[in-house]
Amino acid sequence: EFTLALGRQLGQQGHAKATYVRRNTSNFVEDFVSLSDGVVNVPLVGQLTNRVLDNTDVPRRAYEAGVFQTDYRMADRLMAGGNYTLQIKDNGNFAGEAAGQPGIQSPYGDFAEILGPALDRLMPEGRLDSFQRHKLRVYGIYTQPLGRLGSIDLSPIWRMNSGRVYSLTAGLAVPAAQLARNPGYSANDISPSARETVFFGDRGQYQFKGYGVVDLAATYAVPVWRSASPWFKLEVYNVLNNQKQITWDKTVTA
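Structure (tokenized):
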């Protein structure tokens, strides 16, 4: 990973900062399933082919982005700020994670004789699901003192997101032509009912629509004793009631 940042104070009122981030992920921990690594007999289960964990550079992902941040106090009671992320690249042929699973393995190295011929459709190169070209946040904070009654902070924020990407995939049974290549794996390893996630086209080839919404937060703080000041906060999301459709069904039936 390589990070380069440049910042500057804007007098006593604020600051500005620009950051460039470049990250390449390789040497993934991958499982390999091959008859050459032996077979073990598991009680109440039957024969299973040994799984060997090793490192490989075949699964890969690369990230590159620019991040710009600033805030500025325009008056004693008023401050404005914003941050913008320009994602230049978030590509790869394997994410390496899923919801609730911080580390998972790819199809690469599993039953190479059977799944190997289809790897171009199981692990295509392209934009990962986390790719988002533009992400902008612009906000303001206005403070209204109320004397002994405390103070109220009003903070609107405008959130702008470009559309996320998606792939066309389907969970399909492993074709008979591939299963016919089985050199001797048991049904406990891979059976005729086994399924694989097949990509139709490149990874992240399609894109949902972008959107912008305005949120509002109001915070009321009450001074009690010295620095003790309990507060109450109200947050309203999508104040302007933007009803734009930004995603849609992407189910593929094959």
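The chain has a mean pLDDT of 92. The first helix runs from residue 112 to 115.
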